[in-house]
């Protein structure tokens, strides 16, 4: 998505137009998928609370799902693409991917998980890796405000994940995704109206990259992730998702000509390794995909 975003900016697309078109088009497309395949409306949904959670009224579940998009996803995406205007896609991806570590820390603070010595060491290594990424900026297009926006995006996504964890098993994944996308599109549509609208006068290349973001990076990403989740379980899915910034960095080098310094590469390795260790230790301790262990959210709706 970061690569498509850079290419869309080069084609004259503004961040406001990118966000509004992305979420609106993705919501419509995924809604059409639900119409064509009605079985997806109930696949994976549960009517009772999981892992000891109290049951939640249907209306409240729907409100939380829409709110996740209207507040959480819209804010996170706005921060992400604002940061993308100011910094390289590869560096942005590495900063954003501090969120799995933050999720672990907050989950421990809330009593949803425990912090073992090995997990604490992994968190220290991840923090050191993030610091290396920032300090080793060197010749890449590092921008302090961009880095702050990227980190704020990660923090927002952390909150989004922890809230989503309360409803992710109460709705079918496709339904939850449509509600989140619709909520985000609604917020961005209202913002566009209040600020005088967005410029949609860019050329065909801009629309092409927007279509790529909506189809490849949103709809296809969500549907294929959930299909893979069904076959691999949440822990494996979460571990695989930590390779996203690696793919972004590689594509940024090939497509955009960006490069990371050796210090930043070392920091990125520390961050990704720490996240993988956290997930692997959880898998070994708890066994195969227990219901209360749901790292899926870290790579699902908000990807």
From TrEMBL:
Entry-linked InterPro entries: Diverse_Substrate_Transporter (IPR051258), EamA_dom (IPR000620), EmrE-like (IPR037185)
One GO location term (cellular component): plasma membrane
Top-rank taxon: Bacteria
Localization in the cell: Cell membrane
EamA domain ranges (all copies): 2-134, 146-278
Membrane topology: Multi-pass membrane protein
Keyword line: Cell membrane, Membrane, Transmembrane, Transmembrane helix
Coiled coil: none
Principal location class: membrane
Bilayer-crossing regions: 20-40, 61-83, 89-110, 122-142, 148-168, 175-194, 206-229, 236-257, 263-280
Region named Disordered: 284-303
Family: Belongs to the EamA transporter family.
This protein's name: Transporter
Organism: Micromonospora maris
């Amino acid at each position: 998505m970061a690569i498509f975003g850079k290419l869309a900016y080069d084609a004259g697309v503004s961040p406001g137009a990118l966000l509004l078109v992305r979420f609106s088009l993705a919501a419509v497309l995924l809604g059409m998928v639900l119409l064509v395949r009605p079985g997806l409306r109930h696949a994976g949904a549960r009517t009772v609370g999981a892992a000891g959670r109290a049951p939640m009224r249907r209306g409240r579940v729907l409100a939380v799902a829409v709110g996740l998009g209207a507040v959480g996803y819209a804010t996170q995406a706005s921060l992400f693409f604002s940061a993308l205007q100011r910094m390289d896609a590869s560096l942005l991806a590495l900063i954003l991917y501090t969120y799995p570590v933050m999720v672990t820390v907050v989950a421990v603070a809330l009593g949803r998980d425990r912090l073992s010595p090995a997990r604490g060491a992994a968190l220290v290594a991840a923090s050191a890796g993030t610091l290396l990424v920032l300090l080793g900026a060197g010749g890449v297009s590092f921008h302090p405000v961009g880095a702050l926006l990227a980190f704020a995006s990660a923090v927002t996504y952390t909150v989004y994940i922890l809230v989503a964890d309360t409803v992710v098993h109460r709705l079918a994944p496709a339904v939850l995704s449509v509600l989140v996308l619709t909520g985000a599109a609604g917020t961005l549509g209202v913002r566009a109206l209040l600020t005088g609208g967005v410029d949609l006068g860019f050329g065909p290349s801009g629309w092409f990259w927007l279509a790529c973001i909506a189809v490849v990076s949103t709809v296809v990403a969500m549907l294929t992730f959930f299909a893979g989740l069904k076959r691999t379980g949440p822990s494996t899915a979460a571990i695989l998702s930590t390779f996203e910034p690696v793919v972004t960095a590689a594509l940024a080098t090939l497509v955009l000509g960006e490069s990371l310094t050796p210090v930043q590469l070392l920091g990125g390795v520390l961050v990704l390794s720490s996240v993988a260790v956290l997930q692997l230790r959880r898998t070994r301790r708890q066994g195969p995909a227990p219901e209360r262990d749901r790292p899926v959210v870290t790579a699902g709706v908000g990807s």
